[in-house]
Amino acid sequence: MNMSRIIFTLSWLVFATSMLNCARANSQEVQFNRDVRPILSQTCFVCHGADADKREAELRLDAKEGIRKVFEPGKLKQSEAWQRITSADPDEQMPPIDSRLKLKPADKETLRRWIEQGAKWEGHWAFIVPQRPKVPKTRTADRIKNSIDAFILARLQDERIEPVGPADRATLIRRLSLDIVGLPPTVAQVDQFAGDKSADAYENIVDGLLASPSFGERLAVYWLDLVRYADSVGYQKDSHRDVWMYRDWVITAFNDNKPYNEFVTEQLAGDLMLGGSKFDQYRRQIASGFNRMNQTTSEGGAQEKEYLAKYSADRVRNTAPILLGTTMGCAECHDHKYDPLTTQDFYRFAAFFADIQERGVGYPTHTPMPTLPQIDRWEELESKRVSLNKALGQIEPSDGTDAKALQAELTAIDEELAELTDKKKWKKTIITNAGKPRPIRVLPRGNWLDESGPLVEPAIPVFMGKVDVADGRATRLELAAWITDSDNPLTARVFVNRLWRIYFGEGISRTLDDLGSQGAWPSHPELLDWLAVEFMESGWDIKHMVKLMVMSDTYRRSSVCSDDLRNRDPENQLLARQSTFRLPAELVRDNALSISGLLSPKMYGRSVRPYQPANYWYRLYKDGTYRQDHGEDLYRRGVYTYWRRSFWHPSLRAFDAPAREECLAQRPRSNTPLQSLVLLNDPTYVEAARVLATRMIEGGGATPEERIRWAFRRAVAREPDAEEVSEIESFYQRQAKRYSDDNESAKLLLSVGEFPLDENTPANELATWTSVARVILNLHETITRP
Amino acid sequence: MNLFEPVQRAACRRTFLTGSAGLLGGAALSSCFNSGNIFAGDEKKTHATRWSGTVNPLHFAAKAKRVIFLCMAGGPSHLETFDNKPKLAELAGKPMPDSYTIGQPIAQLQGQKLTCMAPNHPFDRHGNSGLEISRVFQHIPQIADEICVIRSMKTEAINHDPAHTFINTGTSISGRPAMGSWLLYGLGSECEDLPGFIVMTSTGGGQNQPIASRQWHSGFLPGQCQGVQFKSSGDPVLYVRNPKGVSTEDQRDVIDTLQTLNRRRESAVHDPEIATRITQYELAFKMQMSVPQLMDFSNETKETLEMYGTTGGDGSFAGNCLLARRLAERGVRFIQLYHRGWDHHGDIKKGIIKTAEFVDRGTTALIKDLKRLGMLDETLIVWGGEFGRTPMAQGDGRDHHIKGFSIFMAGGGIKGGITHGATDELGYNATEDIVDVHDLHATMLHVLGIDHKRLTYRYRGRDFRLTDVHGNVVKEVLA
User: Fold this and answer.
1) In CATH, what class is B66-236+299-477?
2) Cβ–Cβ of B260/A621 closer than 8 Å?
């Protein structure tokens, strides 16, 4: 290894790093939350934090009193902590040598300047109720479409970075379409948008996409990861379970733009909500399936009590990050090391869910329920019946024929209603059935055999206050009310931060599942607060927030930038440009199906089983046979794909889809050879290529060039350049020659997939175009959001 | 802190190529991982660049380069394999003393009368070391001097699924990375054309408990670190076979055209992710080429096949052992073989012989074969289940047991021909030199040159480790 190269690399690194940080570091005031708390959290909180059992010297540096004890504003010499940090005496030194924790020189420098500047303390930002900050003034207004842009631009101007210009229209519409509905735009939409010179052309596209039923499907893909939705129970045999009505409820809720506070409340406590029609009550019961997403077991020899304790802990461990972006899991056994959460808090939180009736060991109880479309229909029929009856009452006795017609209609309605309301014919789903709460006690070190801990009542973490409860025991309803209260500092921030990742690539705080003291300091804290307040004040209006984000100039920027900008901000934290990223697993497939024209628009219902490699399930105890679906169900959107937790679909897994055992807020975006194998060889993609080939021949024009251009645009919206066309065309020629010599191989290639074969085209021609379509479906650009 | 790592990320792409990754330390490299660039190629080249891990240089000299974990799924009885308990025979049919069992977790025997069951098979001493091995094994005695039996294992989870999760990830909570993923993250892969973490399963001899693919998942570690299941017959890797009617030349042509187009796009938009994608397609193609060679057993001698008792590629445990050796030769970092057949709740006397017959010869052959090839010194072998079985009878079988059981290790860095630790006289509690699962993990990492406290990954605000906040290296078993 060449030494000069190492030195070069390191010095380049230090230089590049300093470019973004030093300007700020030297000119700006040190802020406790932004600059100091992360250092203390990482280095000191383990012994001087929230965990009372591990606290040394009764010093708590996560609290103001502790800070005041050892940091003297403006006075380094009088600050005991500073003396300890800089001490050369191994007995005095902090952090202790044997702790393996270290303060970097830059950290010490930050602490020094902070003390000199007055050692100001702030509570952890995410635990303080957000206030709407003033929208910053920027030097220019021409890149400002809404307030989001002002926050982004102000920071860019601080950094003296010029944002890149807007993306071209083909890119914009493809980006919008993939982001909002998770599907590519049609060529007609691309052309229409390109030619629409009206001022509201862009907004019309946005509104159209937000109104599409695919919007809910796209957002559900994300939500279902959070809540760990799956079609199987999880542990051991991992048996099938039916809870897809909940999935459909989520899709519908997003499509109906149900306010987020109601969305949360109905899931947490829909079964406890009074009022509304019986239809509303059915819908809320389905929503309450949320509380039953945990894994369950029916393994022989499993102990009821142990597993009830597991489920209880599971709910706390997952509900907290899902709704509050807070990690509570570690408080099962000990007080949280970094955030002020105690073990008592953990079990009190668990007690909110103690009324949920469930088996510790055994198959979860399913409840017959009408499906959402059935409920809608039922509601419609009942109101029709009321108006028909009314009409019938107003008819003059002499008007014989009219009455007869109305009566006939009424009879038909009654017949349909009888069918719809026949509980024996209802499908089943898992809902929350509330009952007498089980006693919940603190389990020392999480040990379910130890009954020495005190019994606890439901309560929120003490440091966050108390829930309002009129009398008696607090329920999930009060928990939901607290979570969705405008004084809750976390809920709105957590959700808008997660939305932000969908539309900009990463969160404003990069740790989507932890806004606690170990979470990442937001790149734009004021913007995050502004968005959180906007969200709450809009009535928790999700579509409003999505629209706000995608209408911004920031969103519309090109993702192509100079090397200089990329080097200055490789992670694109400052958003001088847009980000590109690979589509989420389900969307990789939806996209290919859509481009080929195979995608089924059918919504809702039981999960479907597309092609899956033979024997993939055979390591399972029972139910090892995969009964693949046929026909339309092979081509449904990925959100409807059967999710078996022990063996979830391998091609989704290859693209980072999770097992759905635990809450996941942020799928990784890996780039692996297994992904290439899926796109090259999975029958789903080979079949999509064959069907795309058929479409190219049917509607793509007469010449190879026309067909290539046509398919290329279907895949990536833009026109290919001349070189791209010629590259694909020469590939086409080679394949044409190869398959004209080998009709057998051509037929074999065309035999992949169950979609009916186009018999009108000679096999060698169709095979050739199938090869061309495979190239197009495999392009990096095809699976990338631009 | 927020802007520091990302800038390093651009830098680490370069440092990978120059091999100086170690200079940056774990935190910086983990950020390279997050952008999905384990196999990052640089902007101009498309050849694969091996990911050399975050532990670079190693924390200390490694004794082994790779691991073959022979997982005896279902929980083999220590009392019929490696832990001889004459006292238990004396108490046969008598009640199990309460002092052992009161307040202890019990699986299927809960609420039942607890009676001692004598060991069902005699033990003999073998090799120069005189290691005690039960007669259920006919072949393993031949490698008595190579193996180190740990008789004082302990785990925390008493049901199969969480117990597997615990032994694989160090916690019974789902969703954490498997040990193979940790190793890949820490050490990288030595092999370009095969995944670095490969899992195979076989069955036979008893109840086949399910094994979930979460057992080889990478959890919060980058997707590149996840285990890949290999089917030992048919297409070994999912989606590795070309579509029907597509020849190797066709596939190559598809990829070449694709690469040209991707490269052209890269030069237009300068997105470094495209370079990575190009590399992944090359790796995928290499994998497609190398797998058939891997599965071609024609160059194995008759003697070798005879020693394993397989023709290769037959899906048996022995066949998987032979394949494991071939994977080891190709530089695969972590190879895990599950044999599902050890859950002897009933008829353990005959049942355990049946199951043992499925794994005895393959295990022995693998160790002898590696030794013959000079590879045993650099390969760590671990043999054992997710827990052991009760000294108490469950009818004519034994129930799950977590307080004391046996495993063995062999190969690189491990002292052969010894037993370590002990259970009490009835084989209930591990009492001497107790080794829990975290200790096992710490020891395994140690042998591979890793300080288990320093292999960490930041997730949800915490630096996670395979050993959580536990684990002590079992120095006594180290050579």
Assistant:
1) alpha beta
2) no
